[in-house]
Design goal:
Elements (H helix, E strand, L loop, with lengths): L16 H14 L1 H23 L5 H27 L13 H9 L3 H12 L15 E2 L4 E2 L5 E3 L4 E3 L4 E3 L4 E3 L4 H30 L10 H33 L3 H5 L3 E2 L2 E2 L8 H9 L51 H7 L28
Antiparallel strand pairs: 1-2, 3-4, 5-6, 7-8
Length: about 375
């Protein structure tokens, strides 16, 4: 029953000054982790460039090498971080929104069966294959729409987010379809950034503990280099574990949420339901343009709403490596059961003894399955 849901009517904007002040305070508080990370990065820049390279390193050649390598990594690291923070993760298209007439009927429904029937009837015309535990269409009672595949509601962002991985306080944003590549690059380049600082400052860190006069390790400069090394090593360990975990998720084509709760298809739960093989899974996040793989430029395949799923018969050949696995709106699908076929209405099935119509150029594509 939907009687607990409020009607979708317009309300005048709340002008309560106390409430508005609380909302502004909440928005500011959410930026505290980002400000903390930016402060650490700013201090590391000062400590490495000025205290280490300019005041401590004696060799001009070493100074040039250290500064050139550092700034190259620093620029792409910050580029990835900023893109992760400020990329709009998007939302659900209007066609998934329930019309007012259907919403009213849901409010008037007197049983769960009636509610499910109404939602399933509406979802039948939408490109969705994921369901709830009982096989019903996934519906968001806060946003009033059917959820596209891999879409989840974020309580912090207060909206449904396409292919949501998790909400990260360190970027004050959801990590989702549109910025997942940037987030992974941020972790990867952050790890390289920390390793580079650790390796190049190691000899001066050792010199500090040996109480030698190598370079200009005197006064506060010694403590800047000491803490720079410690902080770089600690962050490298943390970023290394997180980066490795997300590399694993990419090879399996899973989000963090899907790794804890398998997406449910009409055939049942399946953690590998969207896996197309390691290389294709990698391409779904990083695209098929190798020149842009490791740059924080959006190259992901699809539109964040429709995704390939396992074991499909693909219609249209996919041999051209310059073509993405989808067209940015629709994707080839694998292993579709009869209900999914009706929902997606994009592929046709033939028995083993039948042949596809020649004008459709049906091609069976074998994609490796990397399931453990």
């Amino acid at each position: 029953m939907m009687t607990s849901m409020e009607p979708r009517v317009s309300h005048p904007r709340n002008t309560n000054p106390i409430r508005q002040s609380c909302q502004h305070c909440f928005l500011l508080v959410k930026w505290i982790p980002v400000v903390f990370i930016m402060s650490i990065i700013a201090w590391s820049y000062y400590a490495y460039v000025y205290e280490l390279c300019i005041l401590t390193v004696n060799s001009v050649l070493d100074q040039i090498i250290y500064l050139a390598g550092y700034h190259l990594i620093f620029v792409i690291f910050m580029w990835s971080y900023i893109k992760t923070i400020f990329t709009d993760v998007g939302g659900v298209p209007p066609e998934f929104k329930l019309p007012q007439s259907l919403y009213d009927r849901l409010n008037e429904a007197d049983s769960e069966g009636t509610t499910r029937q109404l939602l399933d009837s509406f979802a039948r015309n939408l490109p969705v294959s994921n369901t709830t535990m009982n096989g019903a269409a996934r519906y968001c009672e806060k946003c009033y729409h059917v959820k596209p595949d891999r879409t989840h509601h974020c309580s912090v962002c207060r909206k449904c987010v396409p292919k949501m991985d998790h909400h990260c306080p360190w970027v004050n944003n959801c990590v989702a379809f549109k910025n997942y590549k940037f987030f992974v690059l941020f972790l990867g380049y952050g790890l390289i950034y920390c390793i580079f600082i650790s390796l190049t400052s190691l000899q001066y860190f050792v010199a500090f503990w040996k109480f030698t006069s190598q370079g200009h390790l005197e006064g506060m400069g010694k403590f800047h280099i000491l803490f720079l090394f410690f902080v770089a090593v600690m962050f490298a360990i943390s970023l290394g574990s997180l980066f490795s975990y997300h590399c694993y998720l990419i090879t399996k084509n899973r989000s963090t949420l899907e790794s804890f709760r398998a997406p449910i298809f009409h055939s049942g739960p399946d953690k590998d339901g969207f896996s197309l093989g390691r290389y294709n899974n990698f391409q779904e996040v990083f695209g098929d343009n190798k020149a842009l793989w490791f740059l924080p430029i959006f190259t992901s395949m699809g539109d964040g709403l429709k995704f390939p799923i396992r074991s499909m018969t693909c219609y249209e050949a996919m041999g051209n490596t310059q073509q993405s696995l989808g067209d940015g709106v629709t994707f080839p699908q694998r292993c579709l059961d009869e209900d999914s076929q009706q929902l997606l209405a994009s592929n046709q099935r033939w028995s083993d003894t039948e042949s596809p119509p020649p004008e459709r150029h049906q091609v069976t594509v074998l994609i490796e399955d990397d399931s453990d």
